[in-house]
Each structure stands twice: as structure tokens, then as C-alpha cells.
Amino acid sequence: MANAIALLGHYFGVSIRSQLQYRASFLLNSAGQFANSCIEFLGIWALFDRFGHLAGWTFAEVAFFYGVVNCTFALADALTTGFDRFGSHYVRTGDFDRLLLRPRPTALQLAGHEFALRRVGRLLQGLIVLAWATWALDIPWDAARAGLLLLTVAGGVAFFFGLMVLQASLCFWTTESLEIMNVLTYGGVETAQYPLSIYHVAFRRVFTFVVPLGCIGYFPVVAVLGVDDPLGTGRVFQALAPLAGVAFLGLSFGVWSIGVRRYASTGS
Amino acid sequence: MPQIEVKNLAKVFRVAERRAGLAGAFRGLLDRRTREVHALAGIDFDIERGELVGYIGPNGAGKSTTIKILAGILTPTRGTCTVDGLTPWDDRRRHAARIGVVFGQRTQLWWDLPVIESFELLQRVYRVPEPLFRRNRDRMVELLRLGPLLDTPVRQLSLGQRMRADLAAALLHGPRLLFLDEPTIGLDAAAKLAMRDFVRTLNREEGVTVVLTTHDMDDIEALCERILVIGQGRILIDGGIDDLRRRVGDERVLIVDFEEPGSLAALERELHGAWLREVRVTGKRARIGFDAGAVAPAALITRVTSRFEVHDLFVEHPPIEHTVADLYAEHGEGEA
Amino acid sequence: MLAPYAAVVSARYRNLLQYRAAAFAGFVTQLFWGSIRLMILAAFYAAADGPQPMNLVEVVAYVWLGQALLGMLPWNTDADFKEQIASGAVAYDLLRPLDLYGYWYARTLAFRTAATTLRAIPMVVFAMLVLPALGLAEWALPVPSFPALAGFLVAITAAALLSTSITVLAHISMLWTLSGEGVDRILPSFVTILSGMIVPLPLFPDWMQPFLSWQPFRGLCDVPYRIYSGNIPIAEAAGEIAFTLAWTVVIVWAGRLVLSCGVRRLVVQGG
């Protein structure tokens, strides 16, 4: 485990050095992402400007949800380029064979594909929104709140990481577009930018029990904000909920290894 | 015990078929047809430690399928295979740590990194202890003359330089078995020679077993004492280059330089029979292909010299490319 | 006379139809986005005091049509085209006995509309027919009046022409930037927010409306969708469609101008 993390660290160091060779592309990408995220946020602002509040939630509270999920996703996104490009970059070109020829888990090598610095655009925007929301809501920070926020982000990174692993795993079964997973990744981010309580009960169930998006966003954030959950969950559940993200990641790795076995028997 | 033992190894692939035209594309939305492709139809061979074996065959004959199975990245449909006591696909990671693989057309180096950093990354991937890594690296740098290239990003290397770096990369962990897939493809003459020298040294001096797949018969002639020829998923020949020659008939070429520009018509009037393969005349030189099993070279020479004014003549073996092309033609080009 | 252009379009459609999973995935994705967006907007409307520039039924139509026709927005560039520019193979296009802009426009029109037609039909069928059958009539895409439908069809055709002209312009810009990276990063945000895809344009603050109603991206979504729902009365539809077409003409003209500069540059530099 320690050895694996050391290897990952080495991979990332190497990746960052290569990316810095293409400074213009890095700056363009980061700036583009920053702008995209801001424009998205502009849409949320426009709706609050017209309607005032959303089922009792204020703009600052929604901004907090928005900030948390965007920071989380930006971090996970930076770590998973290898999985994101798995179909186009590894399966279609046959380069996945190269990873199989090495004595390390393929998932570890793919995670080491790149640490995508350009995601800093979304991360930065998320942090700014989060900072503003914290200030606007005047949250009384203490160790428990800060710890829970960190756990939320960690669980969220694990969750989105798991989604990317699942998306890459699909490449073992189909060579066709995997846009379907965008529902869960980008769609998940979009969904989690707003409080879970506003959605239809069927969606809430799916996003709690099947794809635990609510567990790495809404529930713990409610506890951090210190408000009562209109859905009636308790603080203990809210605080433990982010662990679902870690469990989801474990499950995804299970699917991944089934996929690798299939790849080895179909050779495509 | 042989290092590699392959028994009755077979692999069947299913491939999807596409229909033609716009209507076909619509039908393809609803149901797809597949067909079976027998890439390997049950092959057997053993390879001993320290051998240097050429593995050849037409495209689609099953070469890369075999190599992938031996390397542990493909599971066969049936049959067994052990390499140093391991079943490659069951023990993939352990097996991977013991073998080296070089694909001539793909690099395993990191495109934007200096060569040395790729090496250091591989050291960690393969968990090579520092002293061993240093020893292997220095040896490779010396043998492959990599010294001046170590700080160059891979994307700036020429193909020949990159291949050398790739070879070194595949050997840093000191594997006792090396798979080389088209290692000389696209290289210029000097680079090919250097590559062959290195492979020979590695095999003779370090005792590394080498399995070489190539389309370049010069590689085979220069390096391999033993060849395996595969066609349509079966091993056609397992033996030396002479076995290959015998298999397709003992064809020779008599090259005659006449005193006067030769006439094709006159030659063809004179020479005919089942033993004659082809006659080609360019200026004063004629090339007469014949089957040495059916007519003695000495008898043919006597016949030619008695009818024509001959300045010089000699007999040669056809290039091995032709021999292999004949064999492939006999067994048909395999399917993809 | 149009045969070569028609052949380009047909080849493109054949190519795309092979991706059946992609088509299905696109449908599910759009369905999901539409549902999420509707729930968010409905939650806002639930708390609204007083009348809004659009009622919820009009918003529902706006959202579903947006999901059905998402692919028609000029938010990305053709990967094949990008490849062609990067590899220099674009020089072959200069050798074809066709008007270059016309050829690229035809190609781009197919790229812009082929996948969309395939996806729009199941989406519309689902939103208009299946949702009411599931007892979700209030969330269904309403059946338009006949004049509104006719107006919509004209307006959406104009939108396709406008969208293609913008995409062609983006393609042409790659003659300079080569990678198209910049265009691909910047274009989506502007297109999605200014067309109304993120939030229906009438819901933006009133003080922004003068600006929003004159910019070209409005013709892509806002105009056709509001004609469909009747939010733009049919009497005003002709003027709005003329607005879309006028912008199309301007952008086609600009595209031709930029292309001729680009070709001159390509010829001078030898590709």
C-alpha cells in the first residue's frame, strides 16, 4: 500500500513536469474551465435573482452545496484522466496491453496516467464560491465541522473516482460512446449543486441508495451548515454518510477487475 | 524442463459484422451478427532456456495472439502454457515481473519525459532494488550507446534511438525472457545491424531467451537458429532455416552473364520442363529459377554453356523472403 | 447540382447510425438532464409570488425541446475535421471542384443535425406521449397548436442553419489555431448560456433582457422553443425567424470572408 502510494506520487510528479512543458495549453484549459464554471453559476444566480429562494433554501446555502460538489469533482477529475481516456487512449490503441505487461495493478497505473493540473480552473471557482458562501452564511467553524467537511470531500472524491472507474470498465464491454456515464458524472455534479430535498422521491432514493450522490454532498453538508434536514435525517447518519463514497469506490474496483478478466479473454 | 511449454493452445475470437448501406446501419441497431475466428487452432512447442527463436507467419496467422498469450495478457480458449513454471494469464503480475516485451511500433516510454526519467519510473513500477537497477541501467547504456540520449525527451528521439531506449527499458528489471515484436520495423540499415548485434549479445553472453517475431527475414537469417512458422493458426514448421527451404522445394537460381545480350525467346526455346520456375533476362544477364531436386545444377550449367556464349555464371539460393512468400501462398494469407 | 453535398450528408448519417449504444445513451442522458432541470425549475416556481415572464407549462416545453435538440447547438467542433486540419489533409479539400465554404457548410450541417434527428425523435415521443401515459401529464411536452407547430418547424430549420454557420466559423478558425482547443473550451459556455439552454432567457433579470434579445445565440433555442409553446405569439413569429436568418446571413458572410483569408494563408505557407 505504502509502496503503491509512493509509486502514484512518483507518477504525479512526472505528469506535472510534462504538463508544465505545455504552459499555454494548461493556462487555456484552466481559464476555460474557470469561465465555464462561472457561467454555470451565473445561471443559478439568475434564478435566485428572479425567484428569491428555492423551497426555503437561500442562495448562499445553495452556493455552499455548489462549492462542495465542484471542489470534490474537480479533485476527482484531476486524478482520473487515465480512466476518462481509457477507451480512446488505451483500448482502441492497444496500449492497455502495455499496462497488463507490467507487474502492477492496472488501476494503479491508470490513476498514474496524469494528474490533470488544468482542473485547477473548476477547483478554484468552487473554492471561491465556497469561501463566499461560508462568509455569507457566517458558519461558526469548529473542529467537528471542519473534519466533517474534509471527510465529505474525501468521500466525494472516492465516489466520483468510482464513477470514472465504472465508466472505463464499460469499455471492456462496448467500444461505443460512453456518454451514458455523463449522466452520473456531470449529471451528478449538476444534481448535487442543489439540495437533494427539492427532487422527486424516486430520484432521492436512487441518489441515496444506488448511486450515493446525496451521501457525499447533501447529507453531510446539511450537518456542516447546521440546519435541520427537511428530509428528517439525523446528525449521526449525516456525519457517516460520506463513507458510502468509499464503499462505492470499492465496488467499482470489483467491476473493473471483472472487466480486466474479460479483456484478457476477448483480447479487445 | 523447457522454459516455455505450449500444449494444444487454441484461441477463438468472436467478431461483430457490419452491414452495408444506410438500411444495413439501421438493422445493425437492432441485431448484430457475429462470426467465429480461429486465431489459433491448437499449437504445441517448447522453448529451452537460452534459445533465440524466430516466430514468423503472415499477418493474421496467429503470431500476435500467441505472443499475447505467452505474455499473459490474453487467455486462451483451451490448451496449456507454462513459462518458468507459471501460467502467464493466471499469474499475470508475477509473470510480468520476469519477462521483457518490446513492441517495435509502440513505445513504453513516456513521450514528454527524458529517457532517464522513464527508466526511473519503470524502476519503481518493477520494484527494482537500487543497486540492481544501477547495474542493469549502466550495462544497457553501455551496450546500446544511450549515454548521450538519457536527458533527451522521448518525443525528440529518432526511431532508431527510441528503439534502443525501448529495449533498455524492457530489460532494466533483468528479465530472463524477452519478447521482441518487429523490433527492426522502420529502422535504417545501420540501426538494424546495431539492433541485431545487441540481441545476439544479449542472447549469447547473458543467456536471455529471446522470442522474435518479424517480417524482416534478414533478422531471422542473422539471428535465429530455430524458427517457428505459423499459418492459419497452426505451426507449419518448427526447425531451422534449411527446413523451411526444403519444405517449399529446393529452389535455386542460376545467374548467367552472356557475351552478347541474351534473348529470352532463344533461352525459353532451349529450356523447358516442370523443373523450370522462371526465366528473366535483363541486358546480358539471365536469371533462371529451377528446382534443384528435379534437375542437377551441373547438368543445367552444361546445357546452357554448350548452347550459348557464356561469360560468367553462378548459382544462388533465393532470398528467404521468396521462400516464405511461397509458403504463405501455399497456406493462404490468414484472415484478420 | 446539390448531389455532391447530398452525398456528404448521407455518408455522415450512415456513419453515425452505427453507434446504437451512443444513441441510446444520449437519450437517457437527455432524459435525465431534462428531469433534473424541470424539478429545479418547478421548485423555484412553487415559491414564486406573482406572474413570471413564462408560465411553468411554457418552461416545461422549453426544457424538453432543449433536451431533444441539444446536439444541434454549436457547442463543439467535428473531431474528423480537427484531425484533418491537424494532419494537413485539409489541403485535399482545396483540390475539390466545389465551393469550399459550401462544401464545409454541407459537411457541418450533416454533423450538426445527423445525430440530433436520431435523438430528437425518441425524446419527443417520450416527453409528449409516454409521460402522460405514466400519469405525469403535467411534466409532459404539450401538444402545440397547428400554427405554433408550423412556426416552430420553420424556426428550428432557421436555427439549424444558424448553428451550422457558427460551427463552420469555429472550424475555419482552426486554420489558425490548428488544435481547436481554445474554441472547444470557450464556445460551449457562451452557447449554452446565451441560447437559453441553461436557464430560459426570459427568466434572466429584466435589466439583462435588451442585451439577451439581440444576440445571435437566441435564435438557436429561445426563438423556436417559445414559438412552440406560444410564449411568442404566432403573429410575432415571422419577425423572430427573420431575426435568426438575418444573423445567419451575417455569420455566413463573415465565415466566407475569414475562409478566404485562411485559404490565402494556407496557400502562401504551403499548408
CATH superfamily of the largest domain in chain B: P-loop containing nucleotide triphosphate hydrolases
Point out poorly predicted stretches of chain B: none
Strand order of the largest sheet of chain B: 5-6-7-3-8-9
Major β-sheet profile of chain C: none
Shape of chain B: globular
Largest sheet properties of chain B: 6 strands, mixed
What fraction strand of chain C? under 5%
Folded structure, characterized:
The complex is a heterotrimer of chains A (268), B (336) and C (271). Chain A has 268 residues and is mostly helical. Chain A has one domain. Chain A contains 15 helices and no strands. Chain B has 336 residues and is α/β, with parallel strands linked by helices. Chain B folds into 2 domains: 243 residues, P-loop containing nucleotide triphosphate hydrolases (Rossmann fold), CATH 3.40.50.300; 82 residues, Alpha-Beta Plaits (2-Layer Sandwich), CATH 3.30.70. In chain B, 37% of the residues lie in helices and 29% in strands. In chain B, the strands form 3 sheets. Chain B has a 6-stranded mixed beta sheet with strand order 5-6-7-3-8-9, sandwiched between helices. In chain B, helix 7 links the parallel strand 6 and strand 7. The mean pLDDT of chain B is 86. Chain C has 11 helices and no strands. Chain C has one domain. By secondary structure, chain C is mostly helical. The mean pLDDT of chain C is 86. Chains in contact: A-B, A-C, B-C. Chains A and C meet through helix 2, helix 10 and helix 11 of A and helix 2 and helix 8 of C.
Descriptive keywords:
heterotrimer, A: 268 residues, mainly alpha, 15 helices, B: 336 residues, alpha/beta, Alpha-Beta Plaits, 2 domains, 13 strands
Topology:
The complex is a heterotrimer of chains A (268), B (336) and C (271).
Chain A: H1 2-19, H2 23-51, H3 59-79, H4 81-84, H5 86-91, H6 95-100, H7 106-111, H8 120-137, H9 143-170, H10 180-184, H11 186-192, H12 201-210, H13 218-225, H14 235-240, H15 243-266
Chain B: E1 4-17, H1 21-30, E2 33-47, E3 52-56, H2 63-71, E4 78-83, H3 92-96, E5 99-103, H4 115-125, H5 130-143, H6 159-171, E6 177-181, H7 189-206, E7 209-213, H8 217-223, E8 226-231, E9 234-239, H9 241-247, E10 251-258, H10 264-270, E11 276-282, E12 285-291, H11 297-307, E13 310-316, H12 320-331
Parallel strand pairs in B: 3-7, 3-8, 5-6, 6-7
Antiparallel strand pairs in B: 1-2, 1-4, 8-9, 10-12, 10-13, 11-12
Chain C: H1 3-17, H2 20-46, H3 56-68, H4 79-87, H5 91-95, H6 100-133, H7 146-177, H8 181-195, H9 209-214, H10 222-229, H11 234-269
